[in-house]
Amino acid sequence: MKKRVGIRFWFLQSFIMMAFISSLCFFLGLQIYLFNVQSSSLSIVTTFWLTLYIFVILLLIGGYFGIKGSYLIKGRLSDIYLFISTLRSGKFSERIPEFEKDEIGLITEELNHLAEYIQEQVYSTRRLADEKTALAQTAHAAAVMEERQRLARDLHDVVSQQLFALSMISSATIRTFDNNPLKAKEQLEQISEIAVKAQGEMRALLLHLRPVQLKDNSLCDGVIKLIQELKGKTGIEFQASIDELDCVSKATEQHLFRIIQEALSNILKHAEATKITITLTEKESYIYLFIGDNGKGFDPEVVRMTSYGMKTMRERCEEIGGIFTIRSKKKEGTYIDIRIPVTGRGLYD
Question: pLDDT at residue 285 above 90?
Fold first, then answer.
């Protein structure tokens, strides 16, 4: 590490060298003059002492002006150094006084402009951070409101109507129970069917309210826990084969988990299935996800344009570079096939 040398030393060194060179030039010039003028009474010794005397005088004068000049320069540079240290500490509102319009003065002026620019950038950054926070809060509030409206719409469109039908049929059953037992029995069977459908709708809505994030669980553990929970609360038979996926990003796991949630929610809502098959595996540089049920099925061409759940699953699959395929036929169940390349977009962080 080199030893730091002050600017005052360089000034003094420069003036001393100037005094020495000036004295040497004076001595040599005087000797040449004496050599050409033979009548001079000055000897070499006399000229030497005269030169030494002049050298001392120049040395004192040079030292004085060197110290004075270095003091001024060092003071102005010290002000610049302190100003830069102040900027580095975050005090961007400080400014350095401008005295002279020389080179150092131009540097001072530019530093003040730089401080103003940094201060403006800090204000802009803070303003953008505030706007980002406000937008995030607005987006969150909008998402919460949209989800509430969706849940309210689902409850009103399906569950509320089913509960109203249960109330009407049960009232009619009570009135006809003594007079027409066979008709009352048919009405009780209708009540049972409507209750099962309402229960499926409520389970689907509760499944939507589950946390989307897997948190610290792997995709395999999260899907197994989800299946165990639904298996304990419903009479549906699950046939599952879930493999651990290696080197898959958390974002991809979240998307796959959300697709499985959405598919199971649709099955609970609409399929009236008694058996669900789920297969998740990795083979030949692809991730394969299969979800099938033995429910009542539907026409994919008709439902594809109106089903929000199907659209969401397809979009999530495409976001991670996958291919989404659905097959269904009335009274023959529904089957979802998803294929995602391991080296595709979005699989790795």
Answer: no
Report the phi/psi class of residue 284: left, alpha or beta, with left for phi > 0 and alpha for psi in -120 to 50: left
Q: Does the pTM exceed 0.70?
A: no
CB neighbours of 127 closer than 8 A, spacing ≥ 6?
A: none
- How far is Cα 331 from Cα 294, in angstroms, rounded to an integer? 8
Residue keyed to tokens 């979005």: 346
Whether CATH 3.20.20.70 fits 213-349: no
Please give the Cα distance from 135 to 254 (Å, whole number).
Answer: 24
Answer for the pair 237, 271: CB distance below 8 angstroms, yes or no: no
Question: Sheet containing 286-293: which strands, arranged edge to edge?
Answer: 237-242, 275-283, 286-293, 334-341, 323-328
pLDDT tens readout for residues 135-168:
877 887 777 777 676 666 666 556 667 777 777 7
Phi, psi (5° rounding) for residue 180?
A: -140, 80
Spatial separation of the C-alpha atoms in residues 341 and 349, rounded to whole Å: 15
- The token duo for 295 is 């429910």
Identify which of 272, 276, 283 has the alpha carbon closest to the alpha carbon of residue 336.
276
E strand intervals along the chain: 237-242, 275-283, 286-293, 323-328, 334-341
